[in-house]
């Protein structure tokens, strides 16, 4: 699976007006480099993954529409590299493979939010067919879900502190009842929200959250991020160790000489993402849900995760298939039962 987003993070944006702009011009730089140290579970972490340390490096061109993201885990010499391009009609993210291949993704690189959307949609479908009392209790205990699937994002602001030499504004971003972002920001026209688009494409948060974040140009410098996934919330901490002007060669954002690898279009298990049997012989379907499960183990895990006992020990509502439409003779009895 992949990871959920609730976040407490600290963001800060480099001010490139005034003295900042003079430094860029003085060094003949045409971009910015941001280096960060992170610990925890990043977007894309599986259900069995353990927290780990990661070094991140984000290189941004002068327009803020081209980004190179490099990620190196502790104890490894290999880096994961991704290019984000927002200079076209729609954002595109390219996963670099070795020295001569790449994959193109139009949506969520790690399918984190795609899987989250599917799972929450299935949960809502099941909950909406519960008797009224059980349904109301379900949504009370799971306030991040709404019967119509809607998500409301709110942003509040207050005076922040000073980070890496830049004055910041503190923001709090919530999505329904979840805290998504809590941190510090400062204006960065040169980046133009590209870093937020990058984190969205890595699967850190939903499009609704991105819509609000894009109103705040900036770069993440320090904080805690909880990624809302299909099965559990994962959290990582991040702290910038360096942000500076940089002379960037245009070719670092290009794919020249690389061969495109087509992404698999096979249907995958809702839980483990293992490709499902094309013939459907071993696929388990649950009435009232979308997608399928590769076997009893994944079905049991999904059922326990969302409809088993919660952290407080109170049993949550069990998954139920959609009820058939009441027949005229039974309609009044069904209403009394609710």
Biggest sheet descriptor: 10 strands, mixed
Q: Give helix and strand order, one letter per element, not per position.
A: EEHEEEEEEHHEEEHHEEEEHH
How many domains would you count in the coordinates? 2
**Low-pLDDT residue intervals, each spanning 5 or more residues:** 1-18, 309-338
What can you tell me about this protein's structure?
By secondary structure, the protein is of the alpha+beta class. It has 2 domains: 256 residues, no CATH class; 59 residues, no CATH class. Helix content is 21%, strand content 31%. The protein has 7 helices and 15 strands. A 10-stranded mixed beta sheet has the order 1-13-14-3-4-5-6-7-8-15. The chain has a 3-stranded antiparallel beta sheet with strand order 9-10-11. Strands 2-12 form a two-stranded antiparallel sheet. Strand 5 and strand 6 form a beta hairpin. The chain is globular and about 65 Å long. The chain starts with a strand and ends with a helix.
Topology record:
Layout: E1 5-8, E2 11-12, H1 19-26, E3 31-40, E4 52-61, E5 66-73, E6 79-85, E7 92-97, E8 101-105, H2 112-127, H3 132-141, E9 153-163, E10 166-175, E11 178-185, H4 194-201, H5 207-213, E12 219-220, E13 222-228, E14 233-246, E15 259-260, H6 296-307, H7 328-337
Parallel strand pairs: 8-15
Antiparallel strand pairs: 1-13, 2-12, 3-4, 3-14, 4-5, 5-6, 6-7, 7-8, 9-10, 10-11, 13-14
Outline:
By secondary structure, the protein is α+β, with helices and mostly antiparallel strands.
Characteristic terms for this protein:
338 residues, alpha+beta, 2 domains, 10-stranded mixed beta sheet, 3-stranded antiparallel beta sheet, 7 helices, disordered N terminus, disordered C terminus
């Amino acid at each position: 699976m992949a990871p959920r987003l609730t976040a407490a993070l600290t963001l800060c944006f480099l001010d490139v007006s005034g003295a900042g702009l003079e430094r860029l011009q003085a060094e003949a730089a045409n971009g910015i480099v941001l280096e960060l140290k992170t610990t925890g579970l990043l977007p894309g972490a599986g259900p069995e993954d353990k927290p780990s340390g990661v070094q991140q490096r984000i290189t941004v061109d002068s327009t803020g529409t081209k980004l190179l993201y490099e990620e190196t885990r502790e104890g490894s010499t290999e880096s994961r590299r991704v290019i984000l391009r927002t200079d076209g009609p729609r954002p595109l993210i390219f996963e670099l493979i070795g020295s001569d291949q790449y994959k193109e993704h139009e949506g969520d690189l790690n399918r984190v939010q795609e899987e989250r959307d599917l799972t929450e949609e299935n949960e809502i479908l099941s909950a909406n067919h519960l008797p009224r009392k059980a349904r109301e209790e379900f949504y009370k205990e799971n306030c991040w879900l709404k019967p119509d699937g809607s998500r409301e994002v709110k942003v509040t602001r207050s005076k922040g502190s000073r980070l890496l030499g830049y004055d910041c504004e503190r923001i709090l971003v919530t999505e329904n009842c979840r805290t998504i972002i809590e941190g510090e920001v400062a204006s960065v026209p040169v980046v133009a929200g590209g870093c937020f688009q990058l984190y969205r494409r890595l699967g850190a948060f939903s499009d609704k959250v991105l819509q609000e974040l894009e109103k705040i140009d900036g770069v993440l410098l320090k904080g805690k991020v909880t990624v809302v996934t299909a099965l559990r919330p994962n959290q990582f901490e991040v702290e910038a160790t360096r942000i500076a002007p940089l002379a960037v060669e245009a070719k670092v954002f290009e794919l020249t000489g690389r061969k495109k690898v087509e992404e698999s279009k096979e249907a995958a298990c809702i839980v483990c993402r293992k490709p499902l049997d094309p013939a459907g012989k071993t696929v388990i379907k649950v009435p009232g849900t979308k997608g399928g499960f590769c076997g009893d183990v994944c079905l049991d895990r999904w059922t326990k995760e969302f409809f088993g006992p919660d952290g407080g020990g109170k049993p949550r509502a069990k998954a139920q298939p959609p009820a058939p439409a009441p027949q005229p003779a039974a309609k009044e009895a069904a209403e009394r039962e609710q």
